[in-house]
Amino acid sequence: MTPSGACRVLVVDDEPQIQKFLHAALTAAGYDVVAAETGAQALRLAATAAPDLIVLDLGLPDRDGKDVLRDIRSFSGTPIIILSARDREAEKIAALDLGADDYVEKPFGIGELTARLRAALRHKATQALPAGPIAIEGVAMDFDKRLVTRDGEPVRLTPKEYELLAVLFRNAGRVVTHRQILSAVWGPAHTEDTQYLRVFIGQLRAKIERDPTAPRIVTTEPGVGYRAAEP
Amino acid sequence: MAQTSRPDDGRPDPDALLAAARREATGRLKVFLGAAPGVGKTFAMLQGARRLKDEGVDVAVGLVETHGRAETGALLEGLEVLPRRIVDDRGHTFAEFDIDAALERKPKLIVVDELAHTNAPGCRHPKRWQDVQELIDAGIDVWTALNIQHLESLADVVSRITGVMVRETVPDRVLKEAADVVLVDITPDELIQRLLDGKVYVPETARRAVDNFFTAGNLTALRELALRRTADRVDDQMVDYLRQKAIEGPWGASERLLACVGAEEVSERVVRRAAQLATSFNAAWTAVYIEPVGHVNDAKRAAQLAKTFSLAERLGGDTTRVQGDDYPEAILRLARRENVTQIVLGQSRAGALARIFGRSLPDAILRRAGSIEVHIVPQEERVAKRPLLRRSMLQRKGVEAEIGAAFAAVALAAVVCEALSAALKLPNLSMIFLAAVLVTGMRFGTRAAIIASFLSFAAYNFFFIPPLYTFSVAQPQELFALLVFLVVSVLTGSLTGRVRDQREGVIKNAEVMRSLYDYSRKLAGASSADDVLWAAAAHLHATFGGRIVLLVADGDDLALRAAWPPDPQLDPTVMTAARWAQQKNEPAGWGTGTLPNADFQFRPLISARGPIAVCGFEPHSPVEPISGDDERALASVLDQTAIALDRALLAGEAVKAATMEENEKVRDALLASLSHDLRTPLSAIAGAASSLRTLGERMSDEERVDLLTSIEEETARLSRFVANLLDMSRIEAGGLKVGRDLVDVADVVQGAVERSRKAFPKQPVRVNLAPDLPFVHGDDKLLEQVLFNLLDNAHKYAADGGATIHARRDGDDVVLSVTDEGPGIRPADLEKVFEKFYRGGRADGRKPGTGLGLSICRGLVQAMGGTILAQSPAVRRKGTRIVIRMPAAEPAAIAAKPGS
């Protein structure tokens, strides 16, 4: 936080037009904006300007955005939102696996970006606290009692389903990649078995969603992973 | 060779003066020496000749081969070319140099190309250098060209370096006695490039030539030989000069060489080596033959010796024979008497004599040579390259030879018996006949031995067993002895013969194996299918003789891919036979049941995937079938070829697949770049618009205006990009409509500058137009588009440094240029910038370019009949200048334009 109490966002993008509107919009939305145009500049500012959030474009003139991400992650846990293109899916997933917190596809509206920023900041704020119950769309998860309820009624989940839901709820509002889920629930040896995941997500939705064909609690990020709605 | 004795008295050396005087009276020979064909000898020679002609010298061209090289041919124009003499030899006509015409014409200088040429039979001299000699003797100056490989003393060095036998040679003394030698030299790389550019041979031949003879290694070696030979000559000239002027010079303590020759072939190499050494040491040399006392050489050896001696004389050496039984002693005695400093010897085969004494001649000489240097020329492994088919024919002829040999042996035995019959008892005489049978068997094989047995039986009976001169036998025990003789002689004779036949077989097998081994090595080195096919054609030709063709399936038909000799004409029958062999997977053509009247026999080359090619070969003799041995050899060669070809074809397909993959990658990169170019302005627009909508009221007026401006700017950028894409696809599809009106360049420049000012208000554009600019033919809209694209580019890459437009008249063209002061373009990329989707910087980099601007410009300018190119650096070692050249309109056309 800056002395004024505003969150400081480091925006890394080499397009002057995008920098221009992000600066205007994020300032108007109450953020303190620091701009970087190159990977090297981004690393320096990430280390010295103490940003609370980083918005990182993957296409940078001097080096690959993923490398910049890896370097930042080596010394900082600051939430990072990736700006990426739909046709660069592999790149986007790689960035998430490398420790990016979320992504926004270009072209994007400012509302979408600020929502992601808020989720990432909230997650950062709650991360340190002991995990209390989380409730999303009437489904509550109490980690202490290892209990899941829907509208107050307990839901019976298998241990794998429980762990799966726990991973998603702990990251509520943020995308979690297939690989991250598989590695957390089934172990690092199963990171490619996305078929498992589909089956389990289907079973989980049948138990917790009001309408499993139009899920609202656990939504699919096509080709990337799943996201639990914001609490 | 001139004696190199030292002129102690300080007077000019008479020999040197004499040689100079002789040179004065006769014509002068100037040799243009080159390392290899294609270095430009003929070109240089003709250029010089033209210059002399311009100076008024009486120049004529006796004969020049242009080899279809256009630039050489052009030089011939305006020079007097003497008619050639048409020589008819067994149905072939040759256009040879006409020496009589040249002598009659008697110009001051005559140009006669290719000194090493061998004249067709029926000409006055067998060799062209002899023609040239005659011209010089007649007082005519001659200019000629020679490749270093044709120099006699270097012939075997060259064939060892290049693997090509040099058949046409010129004696060293021709070059040595030439008044001038001009070295025409280019680097091997340049020569190879010239070859590949098709300046020396037609392209396909050129590629073969580069692969086989004109490798960089070969050329470097040949070039070194040429350079060194020329340098040696310059050295000689200096020495000559010193001698003529009686200057005490560095030639002083001359070397003297002795080449020891025998009646073997290796001696020719000894002689060549000695001549080389002598040349490099500037030494006199002598070839010596040590004749054993009382020994007479047989005709063959005598002929070989004469050949060696004549070679030595051609190479400038003296020859001498010395009688003596102790070789080393005789050689060394001569050496000491003649003040020889170096002895050159052939490595002797370990002869019977050497084995007895446990040492060879070189050993003995080395031991006793003292201060004399001894060079030993190694025995060269004789590479027997007798074509199989031809050898089989020899063997067929052998039947008569065998009968003849048997007759001769028995007749000899009979004569010997007759001579000894007084001294020996009758039964002992049979031993002499038996010996004749054995010898015949040993030399000519089983069949000859059996023939000799029966002949001996008859002769023994007829001449020696009473009653004499009849075939009847008087006494029963003699009949018995005679029959035993017959049985014994047939048995021993055929045994000896079989041993000999087996030995023959082993040798022949080894030969076949070696030839196959050589071939497989060659195949292993061939990487492409064409290389394999050409190697196969060359090998088959070398092994079996006759014409060889190789055809490979090409779609539904067969395509001729390799042949030796190249460029055969295949008639329809032959092609039908080839197709038959391919389709039915069986031999066709000559010697088979299918189309036996075709000139070739075709065999399919079968791989695991089926027949992949057919090989056609021409028989030596149309009547005799292929022998079993040849059949086996042929089959294994074809098998090997099929395997190698299959491998090469598969490798080729792999390369094709890799290329496709590469193209895929390029296309992905293009798509990524396109999507980036579309998405960046869209992101800015969407982001700015949504920011204004949701957060607008919290922004300052200035910020709002800024965002609105950026929406406008990005929309304009997007629209330019889309327009460029459309233009590009129109140009590519050929749907571009180009007006061919008269265009006022100044108007167009003004239009483009105005558009540019609107789009990039911050970019200054300077305009510098020459007065009285003519109109150009073209389309004003398109030309304006081109200029605008160039200004757009300048803006992108040179930021706000601005751009300058120049226009001026240059001859029949109007030259328009747009110059910026940006970072410029690397020289390697000057052409690439006009490629589609090429951009300065990286594919998804920061420059908001489309990679289309310049390629559109080129498309448009070319459509209007102009040219466009990039120059960099343009000003003060930076910047880029794009230059457009448009044809100016004719003044008449301008006059016709209404209103002008």
Structure description:
The complex is a heterodimer of chains A (231) and B (900). With 231 residues, chain A is α/β, with parallel strands linked by helices. Chain A folds into two domains: 120 residues, Response regulator (Rossmann fold, 3-Layer(aba) Sandwich); 95 residues, Orthogonal Bundle (Arc Repressor Mutant, subunit A). Helices cover 42% and strands 22% of the residues of chain A. Chain A is built from eight helices and twelve strands. In chain A, helix 2 runs parallel beside helix 3 and helix 6 crosses helix 8. Chain B is built from 27 helices and 24 strands. In chain B, helix 17 runs parallel beside helix 19, helix 19 packs antiparallel against helix 20 and helix 23 packs across helix 26. In chain B, strand 23 and strand 24 form a beta hairpin. In chain B, strands 2-5-6-1-7 form a five-stranded parallel beta sheet, sandwiched between helices. A five-stranded parallel beta sheet of chain B has the order 10-9-8-11-12, with helices on both faces. In chain B, strands 14-13-17-16-15 form a five-stranded antiparallel beta sheet. Chain B is elongated and about 145 Å long. The termini of chain B are far apart. With 900 residues, chain B is α/β, with parallel strands linked by helices. Chain B folds into five domains: 231 residues, P-loop containing nucleotide triphosphate hydrolases (Rossmann fold); 122 residues, Rossmann fold; 120 residues, no CATH class; 129 residues, 2-Layer Sandwich (Beta-Lactamase), CATH 3.30.450; 162 residues, 2-Layer Sandwich (Heat Shock Protein 90), CATH 3.30.565. Chains A and B meet through helix 1 and helix 5 of A and helix 22 and helix 23 of B.
